[in-house]
């Protein structure tokens, strides 16, 4: 009788241990996915912040004055201002889910325009 009771207790403990182990793994998986979601939100907001900072730098009155003086009839940003905006714009697009191949298929003006569209949707 003692053996049966002991074996019954041992098997119960084993089953409880296994079920707790599974729930712990589920909790870890859930925590990792939540961390990854929070990190992607953070990196997207950081990318947008960096783009806005670059936009402020590109709207420097000295650069605008230089661009007006050297105006060749082009619309949009001049080369020096595009150079400031291009990398932060690419980062914004990457943070929204575009791939590097998709971004590389666009010209500089389209990349900057898509970044403006992305931040306006926020």
Task: For the structure shown, list the relevant keywords.
elongated; 83% helix; 122 residues; 0% strand; mainly alpha
Structurally, how many domains make up the residues?
1
Computed structural class: mainly alpha
Could you name the ranges where pLDDT drops below 50 across 5 or more consecutive residues? none
Distance between the termini: 69 Å
On the 0 to 100 scale, the average pLDDT is 77
Helix fraction, binned, reads over 70%
Q: How would you describe this structure to a colleague?
A:
- Residues 21-41 are annotated as: Disordered.
- With 122 residues, this protein is mostly helical.
- It has one domain.
- The chain contains five helices and no strands.
- The protein has helices at 2-58, 61-69, 79-95, 100-104, 108-120.
- Helix 1 runs antiparallel to helix 3 and helix 3 packs across helix 5.
- The longest helix has 57 residues, at 2-58.
- The model has no long low-confidence stretch (mean pLDDT 77).
Helices, strands, pairings?
Blueprint: H1 2-58, H2 61-69, H3 79-95, H4 100-104, H5 108-120
Region (Disordered): 21-41
Q: Can I get a quick summary?
A:
Residues 21-41 are annotated as: Disordered. By secondary structure, this protein is an all-alpha fold.
């Amino acid at each position: 009788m003692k053996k049966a009771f002991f074996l019954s207790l041992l098997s119960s403990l084993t089953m409880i241990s296994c079920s707790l182990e599974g729930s712990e793994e589920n909790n870890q998986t859930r925590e990792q996915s939540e961390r990854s979601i929070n990190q992607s939100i953070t990196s997207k907001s950081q990318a947008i912040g960096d783009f806005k900072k670059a936009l402020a730098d590109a709207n420097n009155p000295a650069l605008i004055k230089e661009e007006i003086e050297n105006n060749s009839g082009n619309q949009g940003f001049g080369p020096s201002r595009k150079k400031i905006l291009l990398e932060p714009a690419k980062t914004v697009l990457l943070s929204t889910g575009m791939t590097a191949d998709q971004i590389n298929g666009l010209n500089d003006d389209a990349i900057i325009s898509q970044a403006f569209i992305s931040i306006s949707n926020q």
